[in-house]
Input
Amino acid sequence: IGTADFVQFNPVLEKTTPVTIELKDDDVVVADLDVFGDRLYLLSAKQNRIIRLQKSGSSYTTPTNWLNDGETVSTAGAFDIDGSIYTLPSEGAINKYDAGAKSDFTIDPFTPSLAGATRLIKNDPTDPLIILNSTTQRIVVLEADGTLRAQYSSPAFAQATDLVYDAATATVYVAAGNKVYSISTLP
Output
């Protein structure tokens, strides 16, 4: 990317503002991105790294590799941050990282596995993990500790491309085709 110009959307003001992202490498391929606090995190699975950039005015600068040596995110297609970073590798696991090192974290075994899942949401330490797997036409909800809360399936989810979680109402919104579906995840 090098130096790239983006816009940041403020939903409260319904406005966009220009944001500059300065990277050292031109070969970074961004698979996913997230903002946490005043930092922007970029998942570059192709280069096996998560890059952290510090916000400075209307720019994100000073890129640093966030993962410690020996850690791998080369098969991750998505990630999210709640203070810890959770990655979603293509083989169907969820990995958790704290301070750049892999933490001890496992999910309940269930079928079908998460293999092929494309989207992961985990906004707050108390929020569940929400996973979109359009290949298996389902949304998987895991408790924060990795235990299975629920699985929701629908043929409509085969076309799902994104989802968001509203913690205040415990509702998942799923974008599929030209429709948005809502799922209450209250236990």
